[in-house]
């Protein structure tokens, strides 16, 4: 049975193949129609290919074990992949706007639109199904790279549906200016997607804390599993890819033996790793006189 890391790497490699297939279909749809909106859709698929390759390479790097030069492991490599994907998305959006502007002055009639639209619709169905796979696997693996890839592909689906609907209207009304207008709308949506990816990934690189719900669960686990200790304070958390680092100070009675304090720490580590998948726990034990009388009180 494959490990979660191996599953994530295999999924990322499959994502490259799916992205190449979708790119081929969307580019064929553009060739058949001459639609600048479908061209913009195909251009975004080029970014999907680059992003999928980046996610695959990042997952390969993040799977490497900790070493002397990287004692905390390589899990942050996934955030670099997500940031790079966001930048590529933004560049693609600017390219789409540049390509669409001339068509506002000279709108072009679409060629063989039904065939092209049908091919593009088929590509969107493939993207929709694959985005669901990426998001499920990414959340189960807690992989920023796969989640970013899944969100991007799902964003591509949304914009593709909008483009297809608009082009159908253009075909039956003769309002061919809708073609470049839709391309610009696609570009704006892609810009927002790219900005969101960069923002979220930079948060990971800057060691952002876990979300409030996860922190509440951590505090509850400490409170209920630290029997024999007095309090825990200076709780700090951060994400690094699939790993969640949890650090805190644990206050114990002054007359407690090292063995007894160690047993409490072992119990806490096990409880936190069950509560937060992939948790790496560091506990600093302190004597009673170091109590701050705030933080997490032991039940």
From TrEMBL:
The lineage of its organism: Bacteria, Thermotogati, Deinococcota, Deinococci, Deinococcales. Coiled coil: none annotated. Residues 15-206 form the Cation efflux protein transmembrane domain. This is Cation diffusion facilitator family transporter. It is a multi-pass membrane protein. InterPro entries: Cation_efflux, Cation_efflux_CTD, Cation_efflux_CTD_sf, Cation_efflux_TM, Cation_efflux_TMD_sf, CDF_Transporter. Keywords: Membrane, Transmembrane, Transmembrane helix, Transport. Belongs to the cation diffusion facilitator (CDF) transporter (TC 2.A.4) family. It is found in: Membrane. The chain crosses the membrane at residues 12-32, 38-59, 79-101, 113-135, 181-198. Residues 214-287 form the Cation efflux protein cytoplasmic domain. Its main location: membrane.
